[in-house]
Structure formats: structure tokens, C-alpha cells
Amino acid sequence: MKKTLTCLFLLASFLVISHPSLAQKKDSNWPRIYSEQHFHITEVMVTDVASPPVAARIYAYSNLAAYRVLQESGAEFSHGDFLAQSTIQGKMTGLSLGNIDAPEFAAIYAMFLVGEKIMPSGYLLEEKQEAWKAWGLKTKTVGKKNIEAHLAYAQAVADQVLSVARKDGYLQLTAMTRYTPKEGPGYWYPTPPAYMAAVEPEWKTMQTFFLRDLDQYDPAPMAPFDLQPGASFQRQMMEVYERGKKLSEEERLIANFWDCNPFKVEFAGHMAIGVKKISPGGHWMGITGIAAQKAELGFAETAFLHALVGMALHDAFVSCWKAKYDTHRIRPETVINQTLDETWKPILQTPPFPEYTSGHSVISSAASTLLTAYFGDGFGFVDSSEVYFGLPEREFTSFYQASDEAAISRLYGGIHFRDAIENGVVQGKKIGAFIWESIGK
Amino acid sequence: MRFVFHITSKPLLIAFLSGLCLAAFGQEYSSKFEAVSLKKSKVNFKNQLVEDQKNNILRYEYFYNGGGVAIGDLDGDGLDDIFLTGNMTANKLYRNLGGLKFEDVTKVAGVGGKDSWTTGVSMADVNGDGLLDIYVSFSGKGTPESRKNELWINLGGFRFEEKAEDFGIADPSNTTQGLFFDFDRDGDLDLFLLNHHIQVINTLEFDAVRKERHPYAGDKLYENVGGKFIDISEKSGIKSNALGFGLSVLASDINGDGWPDLLVTNDYIEPDYLYLNQGDGTFSDRMAENFQHISHFSMGADIADINNDGLPDVLTLDMLPEDNERQKLLYGPENYEQYALMLKQGFHHQNMRNMLQLNQGNGAFSEIGQMAGISNTDWSWSALFLDANNDGQKDLFVTNGYFRDYTNRDFLKYKGDYYFRQAIDGQKADTLHLVTSMTSTPVHDYFFENKGNLQFLDRSEAAGFASKNFSSGAAYSDLDNDGDLDLVVSHLNETASILENKSEKGSWLQVELREKSQNPYALGALLTVFAQGETQKLELYPTRGFQSSSTYRLHVGLGPNSQVDSLQILWPDQHVQTLVKPTINQLLRIEKAEGLPSYQASPKKQSLLAKASDGAGIAVPTSSLNDFKRQPLMLTMPSHLGPIMAKTDLDGDGLEELFVGGSKGSPGRIYTYQDSAWVAYRGFRSAAEFTDAVALFEDFNGDGKADLFLGSGGYHDYTSEDASLRDRLFLNDGNGVLVPQGNFPDYRISTGAAVALDANGDGFLDLFVGARLIPGRYPEIPASRLLLNDGKGKFTLSEAALPQGGKLGMITAATKQDLDGDGLQDLILVGEYLSPLALINRKGSFEDQSERYFPALLSGWWSSLAQADLDGDGDLDLVAGNFGLNSQLVANADKSLRLYAADFDQNGSIDPILECFVDDDYYPFASRDELLDQMAGMRSKFTNYAGYSKAKVSDLFTPEELAKAQRLEANMLESTYFENTPEGFVPHALPRIAQSNPTYAILVTDLNGDGRPDLILGGNQSQNRIRIGKIDAGLGLVLLNAGPGRFQALSPAESGLMIKGDIKSILELSLGGQKTLVFGINQQQPEFYHRQ
Questions:
Q1: Where a domain ends, among A127, A155, A171?
Q2: Which SMART domains match (chain B) (predicted)?
Q3: Do A416 and A278 fall into the same domain?
Q4: Total-model pTM
């Protein structure tokens, strides 16, 4: 196996494994295998430079496929079936495919099949599918005789998931009028250095999985644009500006740890360099895997949790993106450059969409709410997701601690005002709580 | 292929198929250059680069810019010697031994120079002792000390002494090249130092950085004060900020006032500078007033009179490739917000391609690089205009090539993937690995023969430039004294080329000037040669192209002429010396004579028209609507169609009222002229929701008073059947009040044209309404309509009166005449992707007889139409405005523009896919980003730029999909005069300058009072995709009718017209008895011109 197959989340498991390979026994550590295979989806997204909301959609459908295989094959879940309360419930009816010997094998394969179709460079997963088949045979998870039946099973489930994905509004996005920045003070305008076009301005038209009325999850109103000294907006702007100048080493580290900018562009004359990272959603899918491993969940529970978190992330992004394009709020970088200091630069590169609310705050809070509900509060873990980007592991005593840190990191990073963070956290927790509520535990 | 504009006796397309225009003196010569073998020339200089961890493109942005060439006779033996600079290797000096044999005298001369990053070189007699000295420039990442430029003072006999410190020009800037010229005309040579920054400036810092002078990046001007050079940059108005990435500087008297001006080209965001010499020791950058748009990454440049009109024209080079594959690898997403920001910050309109600014006099420049055929020469360095075949027209040589495919869009993402992968593998990223993993694509140099008539023909291969390499500095000189110009070209990592001119060529004359002054070589003199009615001008400024300087001899090609009538030298001190009938085919050495007369500018001739200030009071709608947000694959924005105009005397007071059309948000208005100003006319009101596309003042109810029909058009944010697309009729109540008619039929089309005509022969004026488009659904074709009038101004829709149910095409203009002589008025229509239509009136219904009246292959992007008896034979001829030839798009009988449209991905939006001919074949026009933005499904099909770079339309869609799609085709873009003959209309292209922009308005009137109707054309298109850029070469063009079917284009100086902007309508009014022309201009106040 190639080195590149090394699991991203390896370091999270306290065991030190010298060189993990896929040659595991059947009763092997399913959460870790799930994470390893799931990371291939992330890798393709990195190649494609999927934007944060698009990435969440991909996580949602690919993990949904894995979950559906388990569900279809009659697995029991400790918290029941969350699809029953979802908007797609009617489209996720049983396929009557019956039982199979290794639903785990088919589940991962179905995840690949959905990923392959749903991502532009999904063809890159073909190689992973082959490797997965080889692993299945080698570890005798499946046999030569029944592997085809497993693949067909996976395909049937993947087809069902993809038929839902095809009608969720994504393909209609390119038919819509593109975004024109609003004219006037306080409105968002593309930001340096690449001045990239607004990302997914019509994302609010996307089908959500759990939220039925987006208006209910609108954040509290933001501080109105007001540069008068003492006005809330002005004070928040000054906070970002001043805070950025006197960050502690720890705060700087926090900003970078939670950067999660899928495509940071650096220019050198004629040449632009795209620096890639995993998206905020990818970071939380990583944490989900880390927690599943620590809790030594079985495969069914692992799949359940990944699908639930992935779908919740998607809903949280839709809600947050609705707020962003309802408010069109200016980024700190723009307003500070215009009114305060024309050479000021945030430590993080400002991502290409309006400011309010903070996406990382909303989605991190939604995810941590669900993970806390599932694992209980005070579930400590070591987050090693960013080790590959030269950042150390970080230890957290709870999911909320992590999501609160992710939220405030955007202030340190100079890309969000405080109210977008604080109201974003509330927004995300409300979404998470509703989803947990609605699945009826 | 060329269009002629004189009548031919043969009808139909013969006129289009005649050959290329002849050169100045009417004879064709083919150019040919041959490399002199190294064995023979002994010029073995090689600008070899070594890439390592310390020296590479990621560390030093200008690592692959290449070296320079300087040529001049250093020892006075009548043979030009050669100096070549090496970036990382020693410079070399070669003595010309004659017969294209050279001797390396670097060692003896001691001019190898220091071990620093060497850039450009110039030869000039800096100390005025009669011997050419050499000024070598340095840059790179080294210390300031290492970058101090060198001045090699010529001691004679190939002995030199480095004296830069003594002269005060051992400047430590990051210099590209030094230009010597006598800017203050005090008789000695001053120095302009062209510098560049070595760090890329963050966009955030633009505003701050622009205010500051940078000691090493900023350009400098040194004044020669008694042999000592003094830095006077700041007080002379020279910009010296860190955004300056100067890549070439040229001196030329651009505005003809006798003072040398400067052109400085800048790479990246900083605009080029056009420094006009104020004659008082200062310069003023007037670039933005003179050039309407410029090259974005400006590199090399040249200035020369390319059309022999006596005015110097300006060429700046950029990096747009010629072929589809390299273009597609280069083009990223179009970013309108970033472009708007660039404009707002004062960086001007900049596009990535070579720009040829045709000097039209009086500060009017028309950028015609694409029409001239020289806009795409890849990553280009040196531009040299030289008459290679001695035909009297200056040809063009361009060097190019960049050692690494640095701008490849895939590399941007690949680099990111590389870092990501290295991170996952726990390994450190290796910059040198990245550098060397960039592909390297050599390209051939370009050689264009100037064919006159603003046309250059790519003769690269035939002229001997087929081989692919990386070329940088270049210079020309008659190295072997055989009466033609040879070339010396510096290459990266390859031996420099000596290219012997072996053209089949015309006669010639060479001139060498000498004067007794501190400027013995008369640098800055202007030579004018008169022969056979042709005038050629050459300025003596050898520093040109890129990092190089050419021969001091002025070389003039004379074609088949056996003599010249006279030649005139305008010496730098503005004294004039004339030689009558000098012997040709020889080198003339001219010493400045004593007691010469001073130059007297000839008095300006009065122009036909003069700008007047009659526009006060008129409100003009402005709009920043971006139609590409709605349909990203359109090429131009249909919303910006106005203002249209119409006139009539509504209230019968003998004065004409003027209607100026509105655009959504700003209603159309009628104005009355009172006391030298326009005031709103009381009897009319229109709502702001409409966009006026056509206005017709006609008497529709037969009461003898003018009524008004308003065709509503536009694209805007209208829905496909928006209520604001209703056309409107206003009847005059007899007192001049226009009353809207609620009973006018309600049909919803975006109107493009309308004609009032008696369609059914009942004696009442009916209406033909031509449909232009469906908002949001371009290029779907809506149905045009015929409306019948009951004589009282009550109209009813006449169903089935038009062929094809009215779906005739995207109609833009229409007119009527009785084509078949049956006494009934027939219709002539033009439109986008449409061949002109002739619809014959069968008493109330119309029959398509276009094929009877128009030849084939006339489908164009027609946008305007006028008719008049232009050839005086008693019938009505047509003039139709088309898109013109000044864009990247090509359409002719062999190469068509094809538009496929369908909702290919079934998501509810029309996907218009344009297929066009690029270089060698048909390819989709859309860049990868544009296509992927339109159709999500294409994202899986083309996962990288390389994959898309070779894609054809057949790779995008299946044959079945294409067969089902709407298909439109265009095969001519020339604005055309259609001669009415018994056999039908015979097309003749209008004069070439009329093809330099789209024509949206045509007025026919006898301007010069000779009894023949003349033409006034207006146009331009600024609302294009960023990649197409502004097409703004038109300044309002007068074409005088010079006898049957001949049109003479007037220059702005002759016509008096100089209108910058998109002219959408032209009207002739009588204001206080004064005949006045009014030009309606998109987003601008109308302009008024009086006849003189």
C-alpha cells in the first residue's frame, strides 16, 4: 500500500501503530477503517477545490449511502433511524435487498460510488474502489462468490441516494443569475488577493435534510453598519483590528488550526499558487471519526454518526449561507482597509463570501451539539486533523470546547466580527438541537 | 482576405475574393531571413541560465526575461558591430569584419562586465566625442552595489573604459535599460532609466505604494549637465513608484510638437505611461487620455509610422497565444468585480494582448491590433518595425517565448496538490522540484509583412522563423551593407542568431546623420522621404524593442521606385534640411548644414465638423447592469442598447423636438430646444420600467400630426414575457400632446427594429415590429409581428402575415423599399446571426425572397441599416453595420462562427455554446471556467485545463444533442455597402478603418455639399466579456462619397469627429438654422457637432 493511504486520523488513536495497512482482519477496528476510507473522499475534494458548502453536501450524500446500506441490511442503531424525520424520508424507502454477509464492505463501497458520481474528479475513486475490493477479498471480508452480490447491493443503494442528490437543487444553481455585489457602504465586495467571485450565493435554494423552515434558524440581527465611534459595528471592527495586532502565540495557533480554507491563493507575479486544505466540514468529519474510534463504536454506529453529522453540516451550511446572502455584510478586511488602515491584512485569507454569520461558528456548533448529544458532555479527544499542515495536535475536553474555539478563531484570524461568531454559535446550536430533537433519539 | 470598396462589374462575391492589398508602391516582395552559420559568423554568444535552489523563477520573477542586443559602428569602419548581454554569463562584443564575419573582441575591449544579473544595453555617444559608447544595465536579487549600471566609454580602436561613476549614472536601481535622448533639446544627451521592482506588490498596498517613490524600482530621469548626469526624476514629473515593472521605454515625438515624448510599458497592474514632453523640463503622463485601453502585462514595444500617414503609431506586446490550446491553458475565470476595482483605482482598461494604437492625429488613437492581425504572439519580448523587403511599408518582427509554462492554470492547482501530498506524506516541499516540474514550451518568433491598409500578414514560416526557441532582445542593422536590414536575436540557452536578410526586395536608401554638437549622431532627428506620393517618416531613436538598441542608420524601402522626390531632415534643434532627388540604393551620409531654416508646421486645415456645446439639459440613462450574471456565455450585453433618438416637430412651431430613449429606471424623454438649451417637452410622459429600443414619429391616424410608436426592448432583469416589454403607441391629440393608447396590442417581445409601412395597400401606415431576443433566453428567436392599422391609429395583430410564424431571426434593424416594383413596400431586415432578409409584400402578407436579392454567405452580426441612392443610379442602395474585424473572432466564407443553443443539461437555462475558428480549427469559445460555471455536468468531463485545452464542441456534446440544438451561424463581420443592381444587392465592404469597431448607427447626409450622400458611422462596443475587452477604435467615422460606390474615410482631423464611447444613434437636426449632428452615446451625454 502506498504511503498516501496513511490515515489522516491515525494519530488520534492513542495506539501507536507503526505503519497501518489495509490488511486488517475482519474484526478489525471499523471506525478507523471507516475514517481511512472516508478520507479518500476528502482527498478528491481537495483536488477539486470543493467550496465549504459544496464539501458538506458531498459528505452528506456519501455517508448517507454507507448508512443506508447498513439500514437496508437490517442493522440496529442505538438511536433509531434518523431518516424517518428527514425531508427525504419518502425517497429513502426500503429497497428490499435483504441481508448480505458483509454490509460493512458494501457500505464503504456505496460511499465510494456516490462520491464518484457526485464529485467532479470522482473518477479518482475508481482506484480506491479497486483497492477496497482487493482488501475485502484478501481479508476474507467478502469471498469471490459473493463479492458481486455485495457490489450490486452497494450500487442499488448508491443509485437511490444519487437520485435524491440529483433533485436537491444543485444542478439548478448554474441556471440562476450570478451574484452582483450590492452597492453601498457596509456591503460585501470580493476580497484580496484573488477577488474570487461570491461562493454559492443561491445555496439557500438547496434542499435541506432536516430543517423545513429556514427562516426559523435565521441568526439574531447583526449590528447595523455604523462607523460612528461607539457604535456596535464600529467597536467590533476595532476589536478585530486591535486584536489582530496583539495576538498571543496560542491565539495565532488557534486561528491557523481552524483556518480550513480549501483554497488559499498566493500570488507571485504572473503565477498564482493555490494552497489547499480541508474544509471546515472536513475538519468536523475528521473529529467525528476520531470520536468514533475513541469510543470503539461498531460499524453501524460509525456509519450512523458520520451520516448524521454530514447531513447536519449540510443543513447548517444552507442556513448559514442564507444568512450570508440575506445580509451581504462586508468583511473586516474591506472595511478596515477602506476606513482605518489601507495596508491591514488579516492573518487568515478572507474567504470569498459575505461575513454574517460565521460559517465555521454555525457548522462547528451544529456538529458539536450532535456529537455531545451522542457521546455525552465532557468527551475529551485529541484533534490531529491539522498535523499534515504543520500544526500540532490539539487536545479538547469536550466537543463544545472545540467548537467554541473554532468560532472565536475567526476573530483572531481577522475574518469575522464578534456578533457573526456569537450569533453564529447560537444559530448552529439551535440547528444541532433541532436535528437531535427531531430524530427522536 | 481583404475587402475592396470600389465597384466591380462582376456581381456577387467576386468583390470579396480579390487578393491582398498591394504594398505602398504597388509591388509585392516576399521577405526571407536566413540564419548565418556559427562557423561563418563566429558569433557564439549564448545566454545560458542555470537553475538551482538559489537562482530560479520562484526567487526572481524576471529570471527568464533574457538578454539584450546593441548594434552600432564602434570603430567608424562603416560596419555595425554587435554587443550582447548575458544574464548569468559574460557579455560579449563582436567586431564586424564584413561579409557577416565577426570577431570576438570582448577581451581586448574589456567589456565583459561584472558578474551580476545583466539586463539591457544601449549604444549612444554619451560624451559627444563622435564615438558610440555602451551603457549596460543590471538587476537581480543582488546587492545595490552589484546592480550599478556600467558605462563603457569608447576610446577608439575597440578600447573602452568603465566610467559610469564619473558620469553619475552608476545607478543601483533594478534597471531594465537606459534610453539616451535629448529631452530638453539643449544639444546633449540625457538619460531615462527604465527600472522594475523585484517583489510583487500585494493589491492591498497599491494605493499606499503608488504615493511613494521607490529608490530601486522607480524609473529615473537624468539630465546631462555639462557631462555630469543629475537625477531630476521628481521635479520632471517622472513616476517612480514600486508598482512600476518597466519592460520597455521608447522616445518619439508622439504629438508632433517637436519635443521628444516617452512611452514606458509596465508589466502587471501598473498602466503604461505616455509621458508627453511639456517643453519646460517636465513630462506629463497622458496615457489614459490618449489610449482607451492598453496591454495588461505590457512587455516590449515599438513606435513607428505603420501606415505612412506621417503619425507615429504605438505597438505594445503582451502574452496572448495564437493557438487554442495555449489560450485555454491560460484563461481563468472572468472577474468583473476585480476589473471594476482595477478601474476604480485608476489602473485603466487593460487586456492581455498586443495593442496597436493607431495614431489618428490630434491625440486620437484607435487600438486596432486585432484587425491588423498582430495581437496574438504569445509571451512576447521584442517588437521591431522594419521594412524588411524594402517595399515602403514597415514590417513587424516579434521575439517571444518563456522558458517555463508559468501561467498554466493547471500548475496553480497542481502546485496546491503537490504541497498537500507532500504534507500528507510528511515530506518537505521542494521549490526547485516545482520549478523543474513546470513544462517548457518553445515557440517560434513572429514575422508579419505589412500589406498596407492596416493589415499585417503572418509570414513567420515563409520568412524563416519556423524554428521554436525562447527569444528575447533583438536589433536590426544592415550588417553586410547590401541594402537590407539583417537581424540579431538573443535566445535563452541557445546561441544568438545572426539572420541575414535574403528577401526579394525593392530599392532602398540609407541615411546616416552627423552634426557638430554634443549629439554628433543627431539622436532624435526625423527623416521624411517623399516618393511617388508616398511619405515615409523615421525617427532616429535606436533604443527600441526590448533591452536592445538597433543601428544608427535610417533605412528606407522604396519598392520599384528608381528615385525619390526629396528627403527632409528635421534636426533635433528643429532646423530643416532638404535634399532633392538624391541617388537611391546607397548610403547617404548627411552632415548638418549651416544656416538652415527652422521647421514651420503647416497650418491646420479646417475640419468638416466642429464640436458644439448644445447638449445641455439632456438626461442620459446610465446603468451598471451586467448581463453576463444572467447568461454567462453571451459575448456582449444586450441591455446597453441606447440611447436611441428620433426627431419631429410635434407642436407645429417649426422647431424639431428630440426624443431620447430611456433604459429601465430612467424613462425616455422628449426635449424642445429653447434659448440654447434643451428643456423637457410637456406633452409626453413615459414610465421608467421600459427600455426604448425603437422610436418612430409617424402620422398613424391621418390627422396630419406626428404620433409616436415606441418599441420596448432590452434584456436587463426582464422576465421572458415581462409586461415592460409591451410596445407602446402615443397619438398626438392635435395640440402636440402624446396620448398613450391603451388599446395597442399587447405582445411581449424585446423589440429590435420597427418600420411603418402600408403592408396591405389600404393606404394606412401599418407596423412591422422586428423581435430581437427573449430576456434570459438568448439566443432563442422570438416572433416578429405585423400590426395592421385601421386608419385611426387602432392596430391589430396580423397573424400569419410573416414567414416562419414571424421567427425570422434576432432582428436588429429594418427598412422598407419597393424591391420588385409592384408598388407595394417590401421589407429588408438584418439581424444577429442572420443573412439580410428581403420580404416581399404580397398585399398584407410577406414572402421570403432573400435568395433572390442577396447572395449567400452574408450571415453576420448585423446591427444597423440605412438606405440611400449612394451611386446615383436612381435606386436605393443599403449600408449595413456589422461587428467589424477588430476582435478575436473570425468569420468569413471559410471560417464561420457557430452558435449551438439548448438546455443541454436540462436545468432550465439555455446553454449558448459558441464555436469559433482559432488558429487551425474550430473550438468552443468558452474558457473552461466559463463552461463549468454554465453546466455543472462539465465539471466531471473536464477535471483540468489540459483536458479542456484540446476539446472541441464534439467532445462536449453527443451528435444527438447537437442535432437537437438550435444552430446559428455567421460568416461575415464586415460592415458593408450593398449596391442595388438588377441582379440584386452586391456587397462591398466599407473602407478598412470602418471595420475597426462594430457599427450601431448610420446617418446618410451630404456633408460636403457636393450633391452626393455621404455616410457617418458610429459604433464601438464596451459591454463585452472581459476577455474580448472594449472595442473602442471608432471615433465617429465620416465616409465621403467619392463617386459611384467609392468611399473616402476621413481622419478625425479632417472630419472633426472625435467621440470616445459607444455611439448608438446619430441624428441630424436644425438648431437655430444651424445644421447639427447629434450622437447618442451609451452611458454618456450626447455630443453635438456643427457643420463648418
A1: A171
A2: Int_alpha
A3: yes
A4: 0.92
